[in-house]
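Q: Could you fold this chain for me?
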Amino acid sequence: MNRVLVNGAGGFIGGHLVKRLKREGFWVRAADLKRHEYAPSPADEFVVGDLRDPDVVAEVVRGIDTVYQLAADMGGAGYIFSGEHDADVMHNSATINLNTLEYGTRAGVRRFFYSSSACIYPEYNQRDPDNPKCSEESAYPAAPDSEYGWEKLFSERLYLAYQRNYNVEVRVARFHNIFGPEGTWTGGKEKAPAAMCRKVAEAMDGGEIEIWGDGQQTRSFLYVDECVEAIQRLMASEFSGPVNIGSQEMITINGLAQLVMDIAGKDLRIRHIPGPLGVRGRNSDNQLISARLGWAPSRPLREGLEKTYEWVAEQQEALSAMSLAGAS
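A: Sure. Below is the predicted structure, expressed as structure tokens.
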């Protein structure tokens, strides 16, 4: 049986990936700073430890054939673009990747998956919200708009260098705004779909929600099950990447808000306020993944948002009930 390690298994995508790997019959060791907050892990082993610590990494890679490296210091725009966490984001994530490759290679791991990000793409190609350029070859000349993006780009090169120099197999994917249930939805590290679902769930019909900027910035969002399917197709292929894993269904942030309101059946006003924004426009370019892996998203954005809103609304209701119980 192929023995697999998932770093970052206590997180959103990592938690869903563990479930998929177990369904496919893999023996799975999970590793993270914490256990999954919203769902029990079906992993055969779950190691709670700091992957910045070489001793922890040396232990978790022992006896492993394949590593899925999804662990990172990350969050939504409010965390990544504030500038207050730049040093930690770069140091923590780079240290995890350096440890994973070095001790994994020493332990005889033969295959590594690395989760990079669309944040590596140059800011100068994403100023027009209607026509962003995010094809894989456009990553250079490099000019990411955040230190998070710079670290991701460095680590892409690190994994590919280990492939060249140490005879290991590497697969690199650039994720574009993955969303769905069982992810961070409050607290400051949540991403746009979860944050929008929370704001709408909390608002009374006829009330208002806040959006950073003018809301005309564009993004595309990919449901987590689609992401995991693409990961597994990449791992089954002979293609190292880097390759985009995302949707081409681009929408403005105002449009995202309206879509969530429609799902919730609420009529809300939007109040635009100053806040961290990131690039003006971003959309996955799926030409390469279609050509090399025959993959494309199979679900519209609305379908994934319906499931995500239902889950976030349930979390919000449970939290409100706990608060009321505590007050009484």
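A (continued): Residues 3-179+222-245 form a domain with the Rossmann fold fold (CATH 3.40.50.720).
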